[in-house]
Amino acid sequence: MSITDTMSWNPEALDEILSNDEGRPVLFTNARILTMDPLIGTMTGADLLFVGSLVVGVGPAIVTAAGDDNAIVVDCTGLTIAPAVVDAVALAGGRGHRSEYIATLTPGNTADFLVVPDELATDVPSAVATLVTRPEQVHALVAAGRPVLWAGTEVRAGTAVWAGADVPGRAVAPEAAIPAAADLNRLCLTASQRPRDWGETDVSRQLLQLMDGWEHTPAFVVGPALDIMAGNSLATALHSGFDRFDNLARMVFVDPAGREFYQEWERAAHPCVAEIRAAYGHDPDSARIAEVVAELSAQSEEFAGIWQMHDVKSKSQEGKHLKHPQVGDLHIKFAAFTVNGAPHQQLVVYQAEPASPTAAAFETLRAMATRPKQAQAAVPVADLAVNEQ
Fold first, then answer.
1. Handedness of CA 83, 292, 50, 23 (dihedral sign)
2. For 273-301, what is the mean pLDDT?
3. Which secondary structure element, helix H or strand E, spans residue 133, and what is its range?
4. Which end of the chain is more exposed for a tag (fewer CB within 10 A), N or C?
5. At a CB cut-off of 8 Å and minimum separation 6, what does 154 contact?
């Protein structure tokens, strides 16, 4: 595609994106993608899929699966997609580990990216330079999934998109859209700097006391990103083989103990990802969910692959086969309950059949538990005291 073709580029796609009130996925397809991820690198003939403000897939042939989800498809033949948020430290070689990289085009990160002609984007700095020095050649600047520039022209709320064009029926950005200036300012923020709902970390004193009273039953509370927000002493003892009892998804996909503990690993892995995706559907702007998805996608190819399947599932009742390194096989019944007054929290309870080998193993774990008999919360005690009712 010639750089002179910018003004005629994909007007119908912009119309669909601006009028997308149903949460349809948006797919930029057949592009050269500069992911800035040190393991993935640059891909050619690849696709970038995002839903709302979050990237959910990057790779070849995503267009096939996206067709099943009624995605809005934008053809990017001859174009390069690059991160709009630039990690200058990474560009200078100052990142020691892959997990330290920010602003990469990987699943779980915010959909902040540029679309420019291949010849103007030999690398990320040249792509960004095109935005600064030749914005009329920028095919798209997308901030948190919203077009800010399109075909070299600013997308503004309540005004025609196309400079000098007066075309009947041409789409305009809805009045409710975030102003372009706010979107541009947001591009300067990394995921860790964006606002987070810190209320998600509050567990009521009453719930902590309730779990503390269940001496024979492992119980813990998880947040939308499957962070362990609190757990009683038996739950802590049950998961003592893991490096940390901190996030169920990390424990399943990244911790070496996960595959031994979850004897039916695939049955644990797929629902785990689906639960996070369900939470993302309720809160697509959650910085914590985006952070967890990005980190796990970078550390686990299996997580990234399952995430791209777009399965959605909430916790329910089912059985699990677990294996503890000290007490052996455990066959438990599993149930999860939404916490009244805190709908973003779920209380997870593991139960054993009475007089079963698993019940006996729970008693052994209870005897082995070294922590005081009070539920351990994943937030400072001082913070919990503020929420005491």
1. negative
2. 85
3. helix 124-133
4. C
5. 148, 180
Confidence of residue 59 (pLDDT cuts 50, 70, 90): confident
Report the distance separating Cα 89 and Cα 101, nearest Å.
9
pTM of the model: 0.49
On whether the CB atoms of residues 3 and 52 are closer than 8 A, the answer is no
- Cβ count within 10 A of residue 221: 27
221-268: per-residue pLDDT in tens? 999 999 999 999 999 999 999 999 999 999 999 999 999 999 999 989
Q: What's the rounded Cα separation, in Å, for the pair 24 and 12?
A: 15
| Strand duo 140-143 + 318-324: pairing | unpaired
Length of the chain: 389
Sign, Cα dihedral of 221, 223, 225, 229: negative
- Within its chain, how far is the Cα of 224 from the centroid? 11
Helices 287-299 and 265-282, axial angle in degrees (round to 10): 150
